[in-house]
Structures are given as C-alpha cells and as structure tokens.
Design goal:
By secondary structure, this protein is an alpha+beta fold. It has seven helices and 13 strands.
Amino acid sequence: MSEPTDRFMIEIGSGTVVHIIDMDADQGGRNSRFSFGIGGPGEMMCSHGNRHPRPQHIPVSEFLANLDIDKDGFKGDAPDEICSYCWSNAREAVGTEQDQAGDDISERIGTVGYRLRWKQKGRARDEWYDIVVGPETTMAELDRLVCRFSTLDDFHLRMYGLEDEYLDSSLNVIPDHQYEKAGDRSYTRASEMTIADVAKRATLWDDDRLSMIYDFGTPSYYYCIVKEVYEPAEVDEVLERDDVITSTDTAAIVREKRQ
C-alpha cells in the first residue's frame, strides 16, 4: 500500500471542483466502491464526477501547497476547490487504514526517523526545506538547521510546539540559551529533548506537524509536515549522500525550494 501522499492524487480536468483519485484502487475489480469506464489509473473517490479522458494527476499535498492552502492530510472540511464527497471518502479510507495499522505504528514510534518539510506560514509556495532527522536527533540540532535557512539568530525568541495552534502547545521546547534566561522549569532545553521524545509524546507519523513561533511581539510561524517515515538505517544512508545541503551529526537538509 502506498503512503497517503502517493496514493491520493488530484485529477485536473473540467468542472467547478477537482476530484481525488485513489491510485491504489483496482478500477477493474468487482468490489470497486465506485465504477467508471474511462480515465487513467486508479479510481475516483466519489460518484459525483466524471473521469477526464486524458487526465493530469498531481499529489493532493502539492495541489494544496500550490494554492497556499494550509492543511495536513484530509483533516477538517474540504477546501472549496476540491470535491467534498471525494475529500470525505478519502479521509474515511485513510482513517480505516491507520486503524488497521495502529498497533504496528505505536510500536515503531520513537524508533524511526522522519523527513520533515519546513515552511513559513504565508510563504508555503515560495520557500520550503526538507530536513531528515533520526530518533536520536535533538531539538537543538533541528533548531540549528531550521535557523540555517531563515533569518533567525540567537537574538530571536523562539519555541517549538505541536500542531499549528502554537500557544496551546504542550511541547514548550526552547533553545538552551533562552532556557537559561527564561528561568522557567515548565520549558525544556532543546538539547535535552530528542525527536524520539517528541514522537512518543505526539505519536508522530505521516502528515502530523510540528511548529515554531519566533519574535513573540510580532509572531511569525514556521511549521513542518511529516512527509516520510525512515528506518534508522535509511537516515544513515541519507546523511552519507553527496547531495546533502548541510547537516549535523544526526540530521540534514536534503531538499529545498527558493523563489
């Protein structure tokens, strides 16, 4: 079974909204939930539209990013541009698959690495960075890599959290030098929390997110979406590649887009 980001595609064609295609579905199967006679591979996720005879497919995540729509997976209501029936059925399909795999996932959380796509809120289409981290990567290492591509420095206040509602976050991780100045034990030093710690607390998996806020007076947000899950050996292979942009001992920026 493909990962959700590869499995579900937007089919570009005619109509007021676009539809979602399940690329893993067997269009010719007898037990197909929806049946259509034309179109490319996969199966449309609703019965309210028609397949395009010469379809163009792009991943749902890419379609959302191109429109600067800030969503993780299929959470919440469908964007206006996407068929709501397709969205609801895709969300149900993903939920069922995750439930079936839940036991295996829970055992692996804390032992795996991730590819995290970092973006600045409001500039998601203009600039993003993929950072690969291992379970032993500290938040301090991640902080150094995030700051490498931003205008942040040690004079900027910043904190890491979970989800996009930053101030409601329960993570409260701040860089070490800020911890010393804050004098508040409710915070955690970035060097004392690993990705494994965060993953266990947040049950971190595909399409989940972390966030960062800085300059609390006029706050700006960076956030990341978990794009892939890596076994530790895969993380090591990535760190040894020649095309790594910059790295620490256990993490690396591997891809970037700048405009």
